[in-house]
Amino acid sequence: MRADLHTHALSSSRDSRMTVAVLAEAASAAGLEAIAITDHLPGTDFAAAERECSERGITLIPGREVGCALGHVLVFSTDRGWLAALPPVVELPLVGDRNGPVAFVWAHPAGWRVGGAMAPPEPSRGASFMHGIEMLNGERLWQDRGVEIARSLCDELGLAACGGSDAHDAGSVGRCLTEAPEASDALSFIEALMAGAVRPVLSKRWAAANNIDYQRADLIGSLE
Ligand SMILES: [Zn+2]
Ligand SMILES: [Zn+2]
Fold it and tell me: Each residue of 139-170: pLDDT tens digit?
């Protein structure tokens, strides 16, 4: 199963230009099997999102994007109530009552701005809690050495590489994906993330539809 693991919708991501319905429609148009909604703020209506997705045959993987000492972290769980209540900034590891497994992915590790300056990745701030690293982030594919830095962090830390669009508008949905060959639903996708049984995929289909030709040797390995 392939999923866009990083998308933002209104109203729990105020910087998004998509409602959940628009996001689900864009995912359907892009031919996606699954998407994660990873809002910045608490309150995502996962039940409504699930309806919009399942009407279109898309699996919803409940998620959040939270800030912590490490930078931005994507959190995935089937415990929607627990996820929806997470504050925007947390301290790792997340403790508290929750049901089922939780997967953590270090989002855009080379792209965390603090007061205008780029904060260099500092794994000692909590990378030991991560299961994967977002090597392909749709918003930052063109960032200087971002993909390379993420890839070497994966090697250094022994973590699986992932991909997500970081989509805030319909046209960006589906550009970067994560493939979990064994997964068939949200729970098995989360388990695959935890086991490192995933890989990043840069969507050739999205690139062709948007007339983008990636002349980038570092991306060729993940274009499909
Ligand atoms: Zn982020
Ligand atoms: Zn994001």
Answer: 999 887 899 999 999 999 999 999 999 999 99
- Looking at 3.20.20.80, 3.20.20.140, 1.10.3720.10, 3.30.70.1350, the CATH number of the domain 2-220 comes to 3.20.20.140
Distance from the CA of 65 to the center of ligand 2, in angstroms? 6
Looking at all shown ligands, the one closest to residue 6's CA atom is: 2
Ligand nearest the Cα atom of residue 40 = 2
Tell me the ligand closest to 72's alpha carbon: 1
Q: Which residue, among 93, 103, 30, has the nearest Cα to 62 in the 3D structure? A: 103
- Cα–Cα distances (Å) from 152 to 106, 158, 176, 216, in that order, read 13, 10, 19, 17
Ligand 1 center from residue 164 Cα (angstroms): 11
Kindly report, residue by residue over 93-112, the tens digit of the pLDDT.
988 889 999 999 999 999 66
